[in-house]
Amino acid sequence: MSLLIEMSGMPATSPWFTWVVIPLLIFFARVADVSIGTLRLIFVSKGLKLLAPVLGFFEVIIWLLAISQIMQHLDNVICYLAYGLGFATGNYIGIYIDEKMSLGTVLIRVFPKKEADMLVENLRSVGYGVTATIVEGMSGSQKMLFSIVKRKDVKDFIGVVNAFNPATFYTIEDIRTAREGYFREGRQHSPFTHLSLLRRKGK
After folding, report:
1. What does the alpha-carbon distance between residue 149 and residue 127 come to, in Å, rounded to a whole number?
2. In sequence order, what are the beta bridge partners of 142?
3. pTM (predicted TM-score)
4. 8 and 93 fall within a common domain
5. Are 113 and 125 in the same domain?
6. What's the DSSP call for residue 153?
7. Measuring CA to CA, which of 16, 106, 119, 137 is 20 to 30 A from 159?
């Protein structure tokens, strides 16, 4: 961070430097290290043993740079605000990046409101492994569907569910490890997939 300060070309005693440049540097350093830290914790929860330590190394280095500037400017309240705002923003960005990366697998439980046989048939026809069982609910016996799905396929899976059982109740949980199961391999639906499914449903 000291290199960035020197590159700014401003004297260290300049009010603009003290009240604007330093807080901005602290803010962006916090955004970077907290974003990395959030991803590191997510990777740890998913059992990614190689990525987590690498991210941890960069996280702590950037944090040390940020905290060193705070310690040098203890009388600057803007630095404290930048530190806190950077922490909050970093959490949001880290979670957003994780959602976009869509790593890992999830367990989806579906409680169809209507007859589930056609839904199960179509989920299986597009490559999803589905297990069905009978459960006892508030309104009596009903079918519950289980499926282990890659996170990147969740939106497509729910799209098929909604095509056959609109407003159906479902839950999604992260899974740390899944082995020896049946996973959908590399097939992507076109924008007209669910439309064709609905046409098949109407036959």
Report:
1. 10
2. 135
3. 0.64
4. yes
5. yes
6. G
7. 137
